[in-house]
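quick one, two chains, predict together pls
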Amino acid sequence: MSISGISSGDANLALADKMLEVVNVKAKLNAQNIANWMVDGAKEVKIAKSFEDQLKTAIDSGHYEEIAGMKVSTEDSSNPISYEKVMRDVKATMVQTQFLEQVMSTHFKRLETAIEK
Amino acid sequence: MIKKIFLPLYIVLSINNLSAFTLDGSKLIPGSQVTASALEVGRIAMETVAENIANQYTTKDADGKAYKAKHLILESIGDGDSRELKVKKIEKDERKGEMLYMPEHVHANGEGYVEQSNVKISDEMVKMMQYSRWMEAQYVVANASVKMVQSALLLGK
């Protein structure tokens, strides 16, 4: 999911846009992790630490324009897949999605009102 | 007038930029491909458990020997979005079953012993519970993904 065409120029929206992409990838990872739970020796797949660091640096330094160009990458963790952790991640991802969608919806509504006026 | 021009433009921009959304259903719902393959594997796994339980007392199989328990060897293939779960092999547990002294049995050997199947019912029940829990988790994940897509479609409403 991405709305980068509309979000360009708005820092918060650019961040929300990237986070929507992240939750979409997280949903895929949750599906992969739970599917591989029964595979012997399977390791958990997660969002890459390098991406998290890159995003954090961009936010801390206020370089929001860099966020849109960041690619959400994943990596294999050294931890085995935990059923409970994946189930927790599924719920967390859903809550994050709902929050981001509310942010987006509010923004769109404001935009729509502005256009109507 | 402005609304007439800009609203369709926003919709077009949104659709153009919804990179994860395509008309291909497997890409529309995140992780649906791997979940579908895992559900298929789950079905095979449940069938194997059912076969093992059904043959717990089989003392002569198609190959003329006592039934041997079957186990699934799973593997994850592919990378990234195209990752899938497959049954690599259905392996037979070649360990010998318990020998019971039953001289009247039609499958008794020269000394009167009958080899039993090596299926352990307790192991099979544990496996069945594990597979069932696993499949339930697949449904939970698939449901969550569908809800995410549904709510994304309602953005701005």
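The first strand of chain A starts at residue 43 and ends at 47.
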